[in-house]
Design brief:
Blueprint (H helix, E strand, L loop, with lengths): L1 E3 L2 H13 L4 E6 L5 H13 L2 E6 L19 H11 L3 E3 L3 H4 L13 H4 L3 H4 L3 H16 L3 E5 L3 H14 L4 E5 L19 H22 L5 H15 L2 E8 L15 E8 L2 E8 L3
Parallel strand pairs: 1-4, 2-3, 2-5, 3-4, 5-6
Antiparallel strand pairs: 7-8, 8-9
The structure holds adenosine monophosphate.
């Protein structure tokens, strides 16, 4: 696996691949890789000739008081894991390389209409930061395909919209959520959890599967599913940020649940913010 850390070097590596007629699949990450990220590399390998992974803790997507400073970082370990899983190219710029003239930047990619929904309500500016860095990565790496996780459902919806709106010509692939055996969705932030908090964190997956079971049994009221999510989470003592059933593309709450509606939750367990979701299917 080649490691590149500058914009020039990544452009050179991409040009070389394109000259050889190779399609690039990009897996954007903030590092601290776990099996969820590595599953994205697996999918990327099936969809293109060369797999590029970006590893960059993007300051633009962290709000004041969030965990930018303590976000787990271990580049050596990440590179070893990515290489072992079959990535061909790792792009790991530092902040100055990625944003030579900022932050603040003059040019950003906002999506105001959908930024206020779900995570956007409590993380103002977060998705603007995500879309901006992803747009920049698309420009630098010109991937044919980019692979994201359903774990960040709202992010995947916004990225699809950005690609349509701005004509990036990148195919967006969204991979299923990888979970621990007990249901906890893998997250780089799980390392923050104490054993007691980890136990409480299981309530996210349990609440979602209770809502999924209600749907499977024929329940179609958004209100009923919402309150089922809420009561499971409340009972575990986590602090709920939202527990919603939303339309899969507009992300607005639904009154009547249907195939493909999304149950999405965000909670705080101690100081740690966790999100999870399921797409309702029979
Ligand atoms: P992050 O490093 O947290 O920005 O995540 C990078 C990519 O990995 C995003 O597309 C995430 O949605 C995806 N991802 C994170 N956790 C998981 C998981 N448990 N299963 C599948 N994909 C994941």
């Amino acid at each position: 696996m080649d490691l590149v850390v500058t914009r020039d070097a990544v452009r050179t590596a991409v040009a070389r691949a394109h000259r050889a007629g190779e399609r690039i699949a990009l897996v954007p990450t903030m590092g601290s890789l776990h099996e969820g990220h590595l599953s994205l590399i697996d999918r990327a390998r099936e969809r293109a000739d060369r797999v590029a992974i970006s590893i960059f803790v993007n300051p633009l997507q962290f709000g004041a008081g969030e965990d930018l400073d303590r976000y787990p970082r271990d580049l050596e370990r990440d590179l070893a894991l990515a290489e072992e899983r079959g990535a061909d190219l790792a792009f790991a710029p530092d902040e100055g390389e990625m944003y030579p003239s900022g932050p603040p930047l003059i040019t950003v990619v906002p999506a105001p209409e959908m930024e206020g929904a779900l995570c956007g309500a409590t993380r103002p500016g977060h998705f603007r930061g995500v879309l901006t860095v992803v747009a920049k990565l698309f420009c630098l790496l010109s991937p044919a395909v980019a692979v994201f996780g359903q774990k960040d459902y709202q992010q995947s919806v916004l990225i699809r919209r950005m690609v349509d709106d701005l004509g990036f010509g990148v195919e967006i692939d969204v991979a299923p959520i990888v979970r621990e055996a007990d249901g906890l969705a893998l997250s780089s932030r799980n390392v923050y959890l104490s054993p007691d908090e980890r136990e409480k964190a299981l309530s996210l997956a349990r609440a979602l599967s209770a809502a999924g079971a209600l749907y499977a049994s024929g329940e179609r009221s958004g209100e009923v599913l919402r309150s089922a999510l809420g009561s499971h989470l409340d009972a575990s003592g986590v602090s709920i940020e939202y527990a919603e059933i939303v339309d899969p593309t507009t992300l607005t709450p639904v009154a009547c649940v249907r195939e493909g509606s999304v149950c999405a939750v965000a909670v705080r367990v101690g100081k740690t913010r966790l999100i999870d979701n399921i797409i309702l299917h029979l």
